[in-house]
Amino acid sequence: MQKNITIIGTGAYGTALANVLADKGNNVVMYGVVEQQVDDISINHMNQSFFRDLKLNENIQATMDFVASLEKAEYIVLGVPTKALPSVLKDLSKYLKKEVVIINTAKGIDEQDVDLLSKYIINTLQPTRYLKGYCGLYGPSIASEVASREPTYVNIASNDIELAKEVCDVFTNEYFFAKPSNDLPACEISAALKNVIAIAAGMIDESGLGDNAHASLLTYGLNEIYKIAKVFGAKHDSFTNYATMGDLVLTASSKKSRNYTFGRMIVQENSAKKAREDCDFTVEGVGTCEVANKILDKYHVESKLFKVMYEIIYQNKAPKALLQALFTL
Ligand SMILES: NC(=O)C1=CN([C@@H]2O[C@H](COP(=O)(O)OP(=O)(O)OC[C@H]3O[C@@H](n4cnc5c(N)ncnc54)[C@H](OP(=O)(O)O)[C@@H]3O)[C@@H](O)[C@H]2O)C=CC1
Ligand SMILES: O=C(CO)COP(=O)(O)O
User: Fold this and answer.
1) Which of 111, 247, 320, 326 is spaced 20 to 30 A from 85 at the CA atom?
2) Ligand 1, closest atom to CA 105?
């Protein structure tokens, strides 16, 4: 059955998911803060800031009017980066007037409480009494490929598995396949932390260490992610699904990944500081690396990989420290 869905954010992923949902026959309204993107979607049925000449589903509407965008919403997809969530949630708390299911796609960790992003979102919206349910959507899904309607599998994770199944039905179409998971901590912690491993993988590959080293890093990284996710109640069984292993393999191997590309820039410029200054695209792994280190401290977890990545990104340690930490005796 046709659902009314609002997507917050007219960036790469919000737009890709709008296409998925509209192709399924849902009514999709996007809310954006960038006029050029909103107009491009509404008038030209394109979002050329991200997808050049790709034609989007013509039924997608876009607006800069937040209140109007929420009017009919039954489901709200949060399609903004983690750092934008506080302001989006503040606005939602103010303007929500009917019950909605929230589907978050931001890959991050709550920096303030050093805790799950889902907990932060739920705790912020619960007092409104309009939060009907919460899910996270995670998996190996580069936005441009999703927008081009290339086959993609993701997990919809929720503490309420029946809700996860319902939301999977809302998203699944002939090229986008959503599978339910009841392990929200595994999916969301892994979705966030894999971006740091992707930066490390970009560094390893740009250093010319070879495919063996690349695969070894991913194996090591997945184990380190599990060690940290366990703190939040993640189950080991969940570490072979799309949101965990799948997204790590993709993001840490694809030249289309911004985190991986940023890792390569660090080695090219021989400085994470310089790479950060030159980087004009969203790289969630940078912020996540800092919170990951707060988790290590708070919960007394050891991780050589996350520690050295913090030193490289935030303490100006030379990029070669990664190789010394992982590939020397
Ligand atoms: N791109 C991808 O392949 C995938 C991304 N994700 C995740 O999705 C999240 C969003 O990423 P992505 O779409 O790529 O990011 P982008 O940088 O492409 O787009 C983010 C969009 O959100 C806008 N925005 C920022 N603040 C607000 C706000 N307060 N209200 C409304 N819109 C706002 C930005 O505007 P402005 O430019 O002005 O800041 C921009 O249009 C990230 O957490 C990412 O990890 C998940 C899977 C795949
Ligand atoms: O999370 C992603 C794919 O699943 C997108 O990765 P990047 O943010 O590194 O481009």
Assistant:
1) 247
2) 8
In terms of Cβ atoms closer than 10 Å to its own Cβ (0-12, 13-18, 19+), residue 212 is exposed
Condensed to tens digits (0 to 9), the pLDDT of residues 108-146 reads 999 999 999 999 999 999 999 999 999 999 999 999 999
Q: Which long-range contacts (CB under 8 A, 24 or more apart) does 295-298 make?
A: 295/109, 295/114, 295/228, 295/231, 296/228, 298/114
* CA atoms in the 13 A half-sphere facing the CB of 284: 24
ipTM for the predicted complex comes to 0.98
What does the alpha-carbon distance between residue 13 and residue 295 come to, in Å, rounded to a whole number? Answer: 27
For the domain made up of 189-326, give the CATH fold: N-(1-d-carboxylethyl)-l-norvaline Dehydrogenase; domain 2 (1.10.1040)
Q: What is the pLDDT of residues 195-237, one digit of tens each?
A: 999 999 999 999 999 999 999 999 999 999 999 999 999 999 9
Tell me what pLDDT residue 1 has: 84
Q: Which amino acid is present at 156?
A: I
Strand, helix or coil at 112? coil
Chain centre to alpha carbon of residue 264: 20
Pocket of ligand 1 (CB under 6 A): 8-14, 32-34, 37, 79-82, 84, 87-88, 105-107, 141-143, 282, 284
On whether the pTM is more than 0.95, the answer is yes
- Number of helices (H), then strands (E), belonging to the chain: the values are 16, 8
Rounded to the nearest angstrom, the distance between the alpha carbon of 321 and the centre of ligand 1 is 31
Is 194 known to be catalytic?
yes
The label of the residue with tokens 């986008």 reads: 176
User: For ligand 2, which residues put their CB under 6 angstroms from it?
Assistant: 107, 140-142, 195, 198, 247, 250-251, 257-259, 284
Query: Which residues lie below 8 Å from residue 252, measured CB to CB, with a gap of 6+?
Result: 194, 197, 198, 200, 201, 202, 214, 217, 218, 221, 260
What is the enclosing helix (H) or strand (E) of 39? helix 35-39
Closest CA to 221 of 300, 303, 141, 287: 303
User: 4-182, what's its fold?
Assistant: Rossmann fold (3.40.50)
